[in-house]
Amino acid sequence: FKGGDTCEYLLSSGRFLGEKVWQPHSCMMHKYKNSEAKNCLLDRHVAFIGDSRIRQLFYSFIKLLNPQVKEEGNKHGNILFEDKSASIRVDFLWYPEVNGSMRQRIKSWTEDSVAKPHIIVAGAATWSIKIHNGSNEALTQYKINISSIAPLLEKLAKSSDVYWVLQDPVYEGLLSESRKMITNEKIDAYNEAAVRILNSSSRNSKAKVKVFSVSKLIAQETIMKSADGLHLPESSRDTNAMILMNVYCNKIMKPIDGSCCQPQPPLTLIQKLAFCFFTLSIIGYLIISLIHRNNYRKNKSCTDLESGEERKPAVSTPHVSTLEMLLHCFCKLGLIMTYFYLCDRANLFMKENKFYTHSSFFIPIVYILVLGVFYTENTKETKVLNREQTDEWKGWMQLVILIYHISGASTFLPVYMHIRVLVAAYLFQTGYGHFSYFWLKGDFGVYRVCQVLFRLNFLVVVLCIVMDRPYQFYYFVPLVTVWFMIIYATLAIWPQIVQKKANGNCLWHFGLLLKLLCLLTCICFLSYSQGVFEKIFSFWPLSKCFELNGNVYEWWFRWKLDRYVVFHGMLFAFIYLALQKRQMISEGKGDPLFSSRVSNILLFISVVSFLTYSVWASSCKNKTECNELHPSVSVVQILAFILIRNIPGYIRSVYSSFFAWFGKISLELFICQYHIWLAADTKGILVLIPGYPMFNVLVSTFIFVCVAHEISQITNDLAQIVVPKDNSTLLKRLLCIAGFFSGLLLFSAVQDQSRH
């Protein structure tokens, strides 16, 4: 850890990911859209002053504001650009040499009566080399001239952002005869002089001329693609312009995926209170541990001085009290949350942009599949979707989703569509699992509901507080929480129809199907009534849970994308349990699910359906079209997988313990990845060990998985304490929780008020 400002890294170092994606050292670069660039530069004046290379940078910069701009006009004259709608003015001033003329122009900006540009980008040298045929006298004069300009630039740097662009190397083999004297050796000498002289009088001052040296690194990789050996190819110029935009705009716009030049966000009131709470928990646990240790020492086995025999302690090892367990859990959680904060809120660890290649996605997929097959064991039971099998299913899906996120595979549409099916499969299991429980057990008690809600939401609520993120940011948890409540409401409202009741009269089955039909009707109505949906979730305090960036559109999009799959899971559970009750399927060890003929036909149909979906997903043209069809067709591949996995008895009788282990902590893995495996709220990758990408992934993955496993255990322990089985105690706890959330809403309102 070198410390310092990430702006310095952005302006001076980095590397290419692939051919065109520039990765600054230690931080992430945001790709600005036209609207974002205009908002950042609102009422700003930008001035580019220099030679033809600066003119190229000027054009790339204004194309970020207006892509329709064409590079035309007097090449050896001033060029003016203005966007009247945003009051933005960008000028290019033709001063190809660092001389008296350039000095006079810069001096005019230092006068108090003249409006100064907010951003000044300057640079020149190649003309001096060319005109004076690369003579040493020209270099000496350049040093004298830049020495006279440097104090003026440093004075401007007190009120404006001033950048001096170092000269890019040339590709000498492509240079014309009139430019042969412009050698890389000469360019290095001119650059060295500029770096040594600039800021020499203000080394300890905050107001400095920023040296834009990263362009040299970019040019070293791309100058061979230049048309004339002197000017950079367009993609390299665009990268330089985007770096300039990041340097100036990141601190203003604060994009999530633009960590370069962004200051560490100040702690909010709620974060400070959380810090105090976890600190007190750690202190409390240490005090109780010390008291227990002292008590244990007093009661420890010791030698009787009179008889010389060992005397056993009168008291055995003390029982762990509820308070101690509570403090122990919060102590561990506090340390873990500190790690979360340091990883993704403090500017302590480096962050890098994702870069997708087919190998970065498919090689890890093959590797984990081999590992999963290696750890094959027999299941305890051979029912369809038994516990080991569902854990295995969750496990391998979660691992694939993790690889998808870290590799940035969302840019590859076929992979994106298959990952959407995996997310839908999670929701399918939500419908299947909760319906099966309520149908078989008939347990609609408050204890069951509170247990599920606590286990689903505990980690996310803590992260919302510690990481200062809205609940909807962790979209999957709100999704499964709302669907759980919908399943509960559907089955719990009168008449409550469960298997025990339905066995006495077949009409109850039709009653349940009628309930499911009503649910489907409501889903269809809401999916085609965006206004009604948004009104429902815009009411306070629901809006506090489901708003993201000031509206509930993101919640509407996420809900609509998989709107039918939970219903499909419930319907599948009903049909399967009905067939099982009537003994129409065979679930013995090694037995096919149906008769040989029916099993073979269903297997053939399932394989064809599975492959057909994959072919369709691979031929999709764009995300919008695919997302429109996804809610209706995703169930095809899910059902095909279930049948392929369960019809053959020998496949149904085994499972992968490797995948099942990850399946048990799949929810924690999905949520924790946001901050301690990925970075910048999933937009980038956390870098614990710079310079060694593979080793970094191994180390960060190991810590990430251990933390997820630990949080899973903490959640289970706290669930036993916070959600007791006794109804009267549970009611008191619910009142306390209601008070906690009321306080949270109050503090959140105070926080929002102070921000505005």
From TrEMBL:
GO molecular function: N-acetylneuraminate 9-O-acetyltransferase activity
Topology in membrane: Multi-pass membrane protein
Keywords: Acyltransferase, Glycoprotein, Golgi apparatus, Membrane, Transferase, Transmembrane, Transmembrane helix
Record's subcellular location: Golgi apparatus membrane
Domain Cas1p 10 TM acyl transferase: 253-734
Record InterPro entries: Cas1_AcylTrans_dom (IPR012419), NXPE4_C (IPR057106)
PANTHER family, alphabetized: N-ACETYLNEURAMINATE 9-O-ACETYLTRANSFERASE
Protein name: N-acetylneuraminate (7)9-O-acetyltransferase
Organism encoding this protein: Ramphastos sulfuratus
Species classification: Eukaryota, Metazoa, Chordata, Craniata, Vertebrata
Gene: Casd1
